[in-house]
């Protein structure tokens, strides 16, 4: 079984659809890149690409299709999920310059909005579940920034299977399995493999019909796109590399 398969099975073993931090938790990571470089790397983060394609089934939210906006500020980037004209949740990546702006501390948190549960996709009702998805997506983007793939997909799949076979826990304990998945992922990245959640899976382009933002929301100045998925950035990126100097 592949690393991605183990990751997808873990939530089922633990009694839920997602492996997530506790409600109200947080995430912090330091990287040897400037805030501007980190911001550029995570700006096109699409939470819907996480396991379970969260937020893509309007039948789970009373027929209301969520819309997604990316808002850039001097402190970092916010990813806002709207349900109709109300905010379902806001995922915030705060970028703190370290060592005169040469390094960055990324802190993530989630704030629940005022949209009622009945019109909010299940993945965005709980701050704990949303944070688990958000930090996984952030980890993917940061891993890509820090460790560009050098090996071929076939080489990485072979290496992944070999490492999992050699280190898989005998009793199938979820905690032990998480530890193995973490160690294997670290070794794969060290050897030049891409360990993003969908790196070794065929990519099926998603519909770019995300819906229009609420009428009271600020109109985006620029529309960007990656692999058929539309994004609606907010204010222009502020160069954070000068902060803290």
Features:
five-stranded antiparallel beta sheet; 245 residues; alpha+beta; globular; single chain; 29% helix; disordered C terminus
How is this structure best described in words?
The chain is of the alpha+beta class and 245 residues long. The chain has one domain (3-202). The chain is 29% helix and 20% strand. It is built from five helices and seven strands; from the N terminus they run αβαββββαααββ. The protein has helices spanning 3-13, 35-42, 127-146, 153-167, 174-190, and strands at residues 27-31, 67-72, 76-83, 86-98, 103-112, 224-226, 229-231. A five-stranded antiparallel sheet has the order 1-5-4-3-2, with helices on one face. A two-stranded antiparallel sheet has the order 6-7. Strand 4 (86-98) and strand 5 (103-112) form a beta hairpin. Helix 4 (153-167) packs antiparallel against helix 5 (174-190). The termini are far apart. Residues 7-24 and 198-245 have low confidence and may be disordered.
